[in-house]
Amino acid sequence: MSDRGLRTILQNRRSQPAQLIEVLQDVQKKYGYVSEPNMRAVSRELGVPLIEVFGVASYYNAFRLQPGGKIALTLCIGAACHARSSRLLLDQAMRQLGIAAGEVTSDGLFSLDLVNCLGVCAVGPIVKENEIYHPHMTPGKLRRLIETIRNREMKEIRDAQT
Amino acid sequence: MPKLSSCSELKSVRDYLCEQSKNLHKTLMVCGGTGCQTSRSQTVIDAIQRELSRYKLEERFHLRVTGCQGFCEQGPILIVAPDNLFYCHVTARDAPEIISRTILRDEVIERLLYVDQASGLKCRTVEEIPFYTWQDRRILSQNLMVDPTSIEDYIRLGGYSALAKVLKDMGPAKIIKEIKSSGLRERGGGGAPAWGKWAACEAAAGDEKYVVCYADEGDPGAYLQRCVLEGNPHLVLEGMMIGARAVGATRGYIYIPNEFELSLEHSLMAIRQARDWGLLGERIMGSSFSFDLDVSRGGGVFVYGEASALVSALEGKVGEPKSRNVNAVIDGLFHKPTMANNVETWANVPAILSRGSAWFALKGDRGSKGTKILALTGRIKNSGLVEVDMGTPLSTVIYDIGGGAPGGKLVKAIQVGGPSGGCLPAQQLSLPVDYDILAQAGYPVGSGGVVVMDEESCMVDNAKHLLTSLQGESCGKCLPCRLGIDRMLEIVTEITEGRGKPEHLDLLQELGETISQTALCDLGKTAPNQVLAGLRYFRGEYESHILNHQCRAGVCKALFSYAIDWDKCTGCGDCLDACANKAIRGGRNRADSIDAALCQKCGICRSECRFGAVRVV
Questions:
Q1: Interface contacts A/B by beta carbons within 8 Å
Q2: Which residues of chain B does A118 touch, with a Cβ-Cβ cutoff of 8 Å?
Q3: pLDDT for B164-218, tens place per residue?
Q4: Which residues of chain A make contact with B583, given a CB cutoff of 8 A?
Q5: Chain B residue closest to A83 (CA)?
Q6: How far apart are CA B523 and CA B475, in angstroms?
Q7: Helices (DSSP H) in B538-578: which residue ranges?
Q8: Residue-wise over B235-254: b if at least 16 C-beta within 10 A, else e?
Q9: Which ipTM did the prediction report?
């Protein structure tokens, strides 16, 4: 195992199958997704068959199996946000970004995911931009948010080039 | 901090902490719960901290960052003790004025007061606000008194005195008897009498047992478990310790979804503090009781209300429920007896032991005692966390506390018990918050989510949405749930897209009844509830979709259009500017019409219009 980050995660967890979900949580947090090489390393170290590691990683909503975008947009579609028309936010995001939920834009800037309740229902509908929560969202506000993020990122790229 | 070696030492520490707090002139409490944090309360907290430091006021005026104060719609919330002056929608810019006027000169800042919309009156204190006065906040009121990162606050409030009493005077039989006499019902799922599980786990053979707290909400639209845990983690710890003492467990786990960051942070901190103080570990407070706890981070899946699935997840496996023959209380985590309850259930335990089962049973009626925390969300004016006596009519919750739907719209239905619950129509809102009465009427209370729908909610779309999420959450193990949900979803989708047929209604009824009788676990059995309730109480909507190709709520895009209401239009032009498809025709001083061929029903014109001039036809 050449990856020091992964070595740290797996430290003191050898042959502890019950630690599987915790380990995958740490891998997800560090790398943004659970890659196949990392799954193989986890399987070896914890003593869990690879197919079971894959089973757990693909079963739970917490884990991505592909890298996300630089800006991970997460839309809450739980019952309370749905009652406040979160479907309109999903339609807006898909239209404006040109991707479906679970996909990444071709420039790698945005990924779009859905979640079934973030637990912030009273100030919903919620859109999460990486770790930032945006309350009381409307389709108009989401359109402006995506435009603002895009402009900010384009400016950063231009500044880096000059 | 040396570990507490006896129960009397705990009392001495508490007396000392109470004495210390008398030196404070005022306490500012700012809500740092997840809801208010989302409304940027951290900027308020930082600003207040800066002002107190700048004028060296920390000796006399204490800033306490608390957990959820319940009135989330009005956040960020700031309350000033001892009078409980209530400020809402506070921003960082207000901080200097709050310090210079309210704290130093006892002046009230009128613009920060809550205005009761029903009476038009400004409310000065928490006790004047109808949202609060209709409640009985036995558990949630503690959130005001404790900083969740401070074990000293919890002890000063009387925390761990229930555990001390139990360790000194009460063996397992006595503890379980108190829980039984209190009438405590499990605050999740079907609301079984709590004592049954305690007694069964205590009687189970084996010297290695576990107690588990699952902090996942279970129901989308509910967020009360996290608010109790992140706002008062020691309360939950103490409840679990008492449970462990009763059943003979020496280890426990708190299962927290990975996205509940504050709950994770505060629980881990509370466990560390409890260990430092000797309240977790060997020979707690000098007794023979040893117990320790760990946190397990969840992968974010719904089925954990089912105990055997929860056990699978704790063992690091896929969260599938095991066969019905396996009872987790006897054969649970690592095949040991395991008692699992949710946060709210554990949070009720300490007071039952310290104040007595008779005190607990004073609230509530018939078979449902105590108070129930509800998450009031969706299309409701006063959205937030409320706590009411069992037996309170739902109409009190929706109208007196909740203020009804925004804009005076009619409440159509409420969803209780999550996606597995039913849609309780408005004409049944006189039903009380009571496990048995609601269950008899066909609505499981679940964990306490109350999602309100008004005349702009479509019940067919709602059923489609819930079936979609249940389809994703189903473990897939049994055919009725796995295939049955797929088929119901297909049919409901056809109806929302304008391809519904009259025979679909009977087919949905038959499918729903079959699935509810044959699925393996409660997720599958209750999956058809929304559709069946919809067919029973909102059949007119389903028929309107099928026969008239009309969605009057303005949700199913194939079945409505947007049009301009000329009486309300002021000609501001916001909708014309906002429309990305150039679908709105208009000129100076008014919008004329919306071209249905170009309109994508994105909803932006409607959300941007300040005058309600875009209507559904």
A1: 172
A2: 259
A3: 999 999 999 999 999 999 999 999 877 899 999 999 999 999 889 999 998 988 7
A4: none
A5: B378
A6: 9
A7: 539-547, 574-578
A8: bbbbbbbbbbbbbbbebbbb
A9: 0.89
